[in-house]
Design goal:
Elements (H helix, E strand, L loop, with lengths): L1 E5 L21 E11 L5 E11 L12 E5 L1
Antiparallel strand pairs: 1-2, 2-3, 3-4
Length: 72
């Protein structure tokens, strides 16, 4: 799954260009997710996601590649 999440500053929605995908100034965050489902007596679902593009950066401008996992 591919998700594009836009993070806008609530105090000034007009300052962000929705169509701006420049890597260092965009308010978009693109996330890739994978899901796997086990079927049986105990159905389990595993989900993992990583932000691969966007404003998720550290102070030096490098991407964090924030990753999360979920079991349900």
């Amino acid at each position: 799954m591919l998700t594009d999440v836009i993070m806008e500053e609530e105090s000034d929605f007009g300052m962000y260009d929705f169509f701006n995908y420049k890597d260092t100034v965009t308010s978009h965050n693109v996330e890739i997710k994978a899901m796997y489902q086990l079927h049986g007596k105990v159905p389990l679902q595993f989900i993992a996601g990583t932000y691969v593009f966007g404003s998720n950066r550290n102070a030096s401008g490098r991407s964090y590649y924030s990753t999360w996992f979920e079991v349900g």
